[in-house]
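Hi all, a correction to my earlier message: I attached the wrong file for ATP-dependent DNA helicase. Here's the right sequence:
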Amino acid sequence: MRQSLFKCLMSYEYYLHNFVYCAPTDVRLLWDTYFDAMSEDFKRETTISVELRVSKTLQSLNLFLESMGKSISLYDLTTRPTNMDNVDYEFPREIQDEMSIQIPPEDYEAELKLNLEQHKAFSMIIDVIQKGKSGIFFIDGPGGTGKTFFYRALLAHLRSKKLMAIATATSGVAAAIMPGGRTAHSHFKIPIDANESSECTMSKQSGAAELLRRSKLFIWDGTPMAKRWAIENDKLLKDVMGNDQDFGGKVVVFGGDFRQVSPVVPKATIHQTISASLVRSYLWTRMKKFRLTINMRAKNDTEFSKFLLRVGNGEEPTDTEGNIRIPEEMIVKYDNEEDSIKRLIRAIFPSLNTRAHSADYMTDLRKIISVEKLWRRSEDV
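and the right structure:
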């Protein structure tokens, strides 16, 4: 068993599977034998006492046991030098915050609702995590193809097993729609105006660094908007993990849509802007890429979905000035303001007279957006 443990990088999961499912006769002996291996993460805290190391290790074991439907109280490990009831408060604030993230009820079912494209990526990423391997992935998809839904499925899967996963995005808006999401610049201490010489600053003994060490997955949405130097600045994870592999050997999932906003480089030429993009990074060729093409927002309107994809890919014909002609069937004819508004409402809400009181109908991807906020005729709806 000693050899197997070290081959499996001394993981809690392997240890627990052995004494949960193999029913060893002396759990206490296993604890005494492998305590140093299991508490390796905590030994990095140079000022930590042995008693506190024991408590933190027991707490971590208990979290894994709970994910298996068990409890540490079922085993001969309950005599401990520090009160387990108070051990939560001994964890760094960053880890406590991560552990307190609530999984939305709908996210528990997200994994079951993934389409074939999403499920293929999901299965490979989870498999890499379960095997303790490293990996860099990129989820490429136009708006509406379910990238955020996919991220939330990954987060729910891991967090439901008491494993830590960090959700970040380039913009605060994108980060806010993922449970526990924060900007990548905040999480990884990346300078806002990153360049070739930028470096992240974080103490290896800090709670933030401990959170990075414990996390099984990092998600970074909206990466096409970020300058490649911000993404390449993975020296922080290499230092924290003591591992010279890309991103310290962690599993990282990037994602976004190159058809949308590119990196903002003040007064730059097109060539300079492209040079600042992720596709010009040495990391780009090392990423396993998954492409999402099914528009989940317009899945019942395949022609519209195909039109949007052609526009995004630069494949839709244009006139001499570069303008795209919108198909007639997508245009609501304008005669005068009053008639045109009513015609628009009927086009978007065709069953409004009979289903106006149905919340599902009114919120089922049906929206009328006024760009200039000049439309105040809400009484027409």
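Sorry for the mix-up. The chain has 19 helices and six strands.
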